[in-house]
Write a structure and sequence with these properties.
alpha/beta; six-stranded parallel sheet; two-stranded parallel ribbon; 10 helices; 44% helix; 12% strand
């Protein structure tokens, strides 16, 4: 055997271990092993709860439009916000909170954690915390992709990493509002966490507009299933 083969094998295992958390959004078993939650607590699920979550905002157009629809249907959601967007949009985050919605951390900048050093991740989380506020206790990585250092840094701050169990792929350029609504509610059950986006800064231009159009259909499907919309619980 070549003396370099064990080294190559060891390196391959190291890379696999480093990148394994990135599979959590699409492989539920990986999320389970990592303790990265994809659903509501059993208590919330037993009461018929499902959670609507919105990533990437606040957005000066998309977020107010989403807030208005949620107000009209008298439901609360959870907004995973980006620090740089909070700073750009002034008091918009205050409006989200004033409407009774939960606010969680999506990072200070929208960057894949696999590409960031430990120190950069820690700095990003600290800046996000300063901007959003210490009372936020839930975190979702950009793209849903965690690294081992990312998970450790999030948990070291006392935050809980949260992914999702249903998504609408609403960031895509050519998807229709009807397709977004159908996909995010397909097979909907109590305890599901639904992923949508109220901003287009990191996705296809004007994608938030399709989310806004899809949202009433999503809420109607939730109600028709006899379920209720709640914020993500801790």
């Amino acid at each position: 055997m070549s003396p370099t083969r064990p080294l190559i094998a060891a390196a391959g295992l190291g890379v696999a271990a480093w990148t394994a958390p990135a599979l959590a959004p699409i492989v539920p078993a990986v999320a389970g092993v990592l303790g990265t939650r994809r659903t509501l607590s059993p208590a919330a699920a037993s009461d018929g709860g499902v959670a609507l979550t919105f990533d990437d905002g606040p957005h000066p157009i998309g977020t107010p439009a989403v807030l208005e629809i949620l107000r009209a249907h008298d439901v609360q959601a959870t907004f995973f916000v980006v620090g740089e967007q909070v700073r750009r949009t002034g008091t918009l985050l205050d409006e989200v909170r004033a409407a009774g919605h939960a606010v969680a951390i999506h990072g200070d900048r929208h960057r894949c954690l696999l590409r960031l050093s430990r120190a950069t991740i820690r700095d990003d989380l600290a800046r996000a915390s300063e901007t959003v506020g210490e009372h936020a206790s839930l975190h979702r990585a950009p793209y849903g992709i965690y690294s081992v250092p990312g998970l450790r840094a999030v948990r070291a701050r006392g935050w809980e990493p949260v992914l999702w169990s249903r998504w609408g792929h609403d960031w895509r350029r050519h998807i229709t509002p009807a397709a977004v609504a159908a996909e995010v509610t397909e097979g909907l059950t109590a305890g599901d966490v639904l992923l949508l986006h109220d901003a287009d800064d990191y996705s296809a231009k004007d994608s938030y507009a399709r989310t806004v159009e899809a949202l009433p259909m999503v809420l109607e499907t939730i109600a028709a299933a006899g379920l209720r919309t709640v914020p993500v619980d801790r």
